[in-house]
Amino acid sequence: MAISSKKMNPYDEMMKGLWRDNPVFVQVLGMCPMLAVTNSAINAIAMGLATFFVLVGSSFLVSSLKRWIPKQVRISVYIVIIATFVTVVDYVLLATVPAIHKELGAFIPLIVANCLILGRQEAFASRYPVKLAVMDAIGMATGFLLAMFALGSVREILGEGKLFGVSLFGDNFEPWVIMILPPGGFITLGLLLLLFNWVGERKQAFIAQVAEAERGKA
Fold this sequence. Notes:
Elements: H1 10-15, H2 31-36, H3 41-65, H4 74-96, H5 98-104, H6 115-125, H7 130-160, E1 162-163, E2 166-167, H8 182-217
Helix pairs in contact: 3-4, 3-6, 3-7, 4-5, 4-6, 7-8
């Protein structure tokens, strides 16, 4: 049964995925593709867009059909729906950008097992109206895409001295080869998580300081 959504703002539902409930930097979900395919910015964007399409499409369909999905088989139905959208993405990438499809390899089919996507179906899309479900999916997918791009661009810039294949520093730059290897993914992700948490703490401290000042004036 759907939960009441009268007081929920669709815009807020979308924005929470960008910062407050970012799937990577806050919920720490989708770590497998996050670390595996972000050795370049273009690969990161391709995987992020693929995940975006699957998450938004499956959330729309699950929310639309939630009244007719038996509770006993809901997870199986969600997986079938997700797998359908993943198959579409797989064939579209193969037909349009075969080089990137080859780079991403098995990680495209593995979107089916991404806990971010299945989790949003179970926790949100299956309980709320279509509009809220789609806005939530857009926010979460965009947050995931931005996190993928942040990691991929940092690793490509430091690991190859390029961004989208364009040289940034000239021939004198010495690439940090470790950045395009698996350890570089862990290092970069750890630093980005540290930065994200630091910014969040500073924001909370500023809000508390402003609230204290307002109470002092009162």
